[in-house]
Amino acid sequence: MSATQTTPLAPNPLELAILSQLKAAGGTCDALTALPVERKSSMRQRVKACQQLQARGWLTYDHDIAQFGLTLTSKTLLKLDLSVWPVTPDELLILRSGLGGRIRPGQIHRRVSVGDRQRLLERLAAQGLIVVYERAVVNLRLTPEGDRYLK
User: Fold this and answer.
1) Mind listing the pLDDT tens digit for each residue in 50-87?
2) Which of 22, 26, 43, 77 has its CA 20 to 30 A from that of 98?
3) Mean per-residue pLDDT for 85-107?
4) In order of start, what are the domains of the chain with their CATH numbers?
5) 37 in Cβ contact with 19 (< 8 Å)
6) Which residues, 6 or more positions from 39, have their beta carbon under 8 angstroms from its beta carbon?
7) What is the dihedral angle through the alpha carbons of 137, 139, 142, 143, rounded to the nearest 10 degrees?
8) By C-alpha distance, which of 38, 18, 41, 39 is closest to 28?
9) Is 130 helix (H, G, I), strand (E, B) or coil?
10) Which residues are CB-contacts of 93 (< 8 A; sequence separation ≥ 6)?
């Protein structure tokens, strides 16, 4: 690791607040936005703190697509014959939902199951049919190392 990529051993106050709140929540939290961190901080600062904590091995988390839009390719393909499309009906509903511009997963057509939306969005992003503008930190989990640090 280079000198610019090293992380200090002691967490800063925001990182400590995140660890403490995560421990108070039982070691897991569905979303970073649901974690009641009392320190005044922006979401960008909280995400950076989570990245630092993950680099130390003190917590783990996942990313969900929080905002996306259509690529020029998908806009063009929506105008073509749908029988040649390599997408499922649910993916087609997602693409049609995004015709108006950037949207969030909650704005996808209601016929697409909420539980399937992230999986379908990731697949569409991998195919180059949507552009991901924003990702959210979700499924935060305190690791045993992070738990030991707090003791």
Assistant:
1) 999 999 999 999 999 999 999 998 998 888 876 777 78
2) 43
3) 92
4) 13-63+137-150 (1.10.10.10), 66-135 (no CATH)
5) no
6) 13, 14, 17
7) -100
8) 18
9) strand
10) 108, 109, 111, 112
Number of Cβ within 10 Å of residue 28's Cβ equals 12
Q: Residue 50 corresponds to which tokens in the numbers above?
A: 């989570």
132 phi and psi, to 5 degrees?
-90, 120
Asked if 61 contacts 137 with a C-beta cutoff of 8 angstroms, the reply is yes
pLDDT at position 134, please? 94
CA distance 35 to 145: 20
- For residue 6, give the 3-state DSSP assignment: coil
Nearest to 119 by CA among 139, 141, 77, 91: 91
The pTM of this model reads 0.79
118-131 per-position pLDDT tens digit? 999 999 999 999 99
The two structure tokens encoding residue 73:
């390719």
Structure tokens belonging to residue 122: 């990731």
Average pLDDT over residues 25-37: 88
Element (H, E) at 43: helix 43-56
Give CA–CA dist 137/151, Å, rounded.
25
